[in-house]
């Protein structure tokens, strides 16, 4: 059985190894992406953000998370 791409805050926090409160703090600080589709988080966007924090995506100039983040901020 495949895992759903969109998950609850609790499941997203667990995926990251964070408490739900710490997960929300990371989202508020912009370390992790905000919810999409109401109150669901996109696991793929979280994976990209975690890769970036870990330095695994440092060579990628076309970072999809950064592009998504800019689009959410109005292109800043």
UniProtKB/TrEMBL annotation:
> Spans of biased composition, class Basic and acidic residues?
66-76
Annotated region (Disordered), positions in chain: 56-76
Q: What is this protein called?
A: DNA-binding protein
């Amino acid at each position: 059985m495949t895992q759903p791409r969109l998950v609850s805050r609790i499941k997203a926090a667990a995926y990251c190894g964070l408490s739900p409160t710490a997960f929300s703090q990371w989202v508020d600080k912009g370390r992790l992406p905000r919810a999409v589709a109401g109150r669901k988080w996109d696991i793929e966007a979280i994976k990209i953000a975690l890769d970036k924090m870990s330095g695994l995506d440092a060579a990628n100039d076309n970072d999809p998370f950064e592009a998504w983040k800019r689009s959410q901020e109005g292109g800043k």
